[in-house]
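In this supplementary section we document a worked example of the pipeline. Step one takes a protein sequence of length 275 as its only input; no multiple sequence alignment statistics are reported here. Step two produces a three-dimensional model, which step three serialises into structure tokens for compact storage. The input and output of this example are shown verbatim.
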Amino acid sequence: MAASVWSGYLTFGLISMPVRLYSGARSSGISFHLLHRDDLQRVRQQLYCPAENRVIDRSDTVKGYEYRKDEYVVVEPEEIKKIEPKTAKTMEILEFVKAGDVDPVYFESSYYMLPEEAGRRPYALLTKALEESEYVAIAKLTMHNREYTVFLRPHEGGLMLHTMYYAEEVRAVEGFGAPDVELKEAELKVAHQLIEALAADWEPEKFHDSFQDNLKQLIQTKLEGGKIAEVEKPKKLAPVVDLMSALKESLAKMEGKKKPAAREAAGAKRSRGGA
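The serialised model returned by step three reads:
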């Protein structure tokens, strides 16, 4: 099993259970090294001090906060350790809320929470209670030199933890919201039909990064001395002038791609709904 990123206690009223967190998701992809074009040797990045005009070692560095232009207050690791809040080792559940009340825009990173042997029973109890009540837990947690508000939810018999952005970190964009336009009932009707034509069960494994696939193919082709084929680019679409015509044409194309059984099922569903 991978190394845990945090260990401590989850508290729930007077109940305390030892738990560990493991990274639940991590982006991956092809990475490139920076090379010197002339001899293809890897370029080294060095720490340079302009005041002394020389390269320095990482052990000669300290962390500093710039409180005024070119003026810093130095902060040592042991000083940071002294001010860690209690949430560095104890994660206290503050409240329970309905899962649907939390907007996904607040979600940041995901972690699996596993109980230590001594915490298996209270962990199972909390998980089951959350499943049956349809509530999720909100708690506080400190890791990586930051205190997070976290979201605990049941998942496949265990608990998932999601770190969350604070309200002041969620940016507002001027002009965002429902456009001031009047929609026709007929347009909405065809739009619903188009949604039904594209409706499917959620299967995350069927989605993949085609750009990464193309990069792998490019690398393999260059290793084999082959010719790189250019991927066909999509045609530039003209702005929609007749929305209803575009909706109907889109619907016809989507239904034409569906298998006969799927078309029949979709048609029966629309008939029941009176669409």
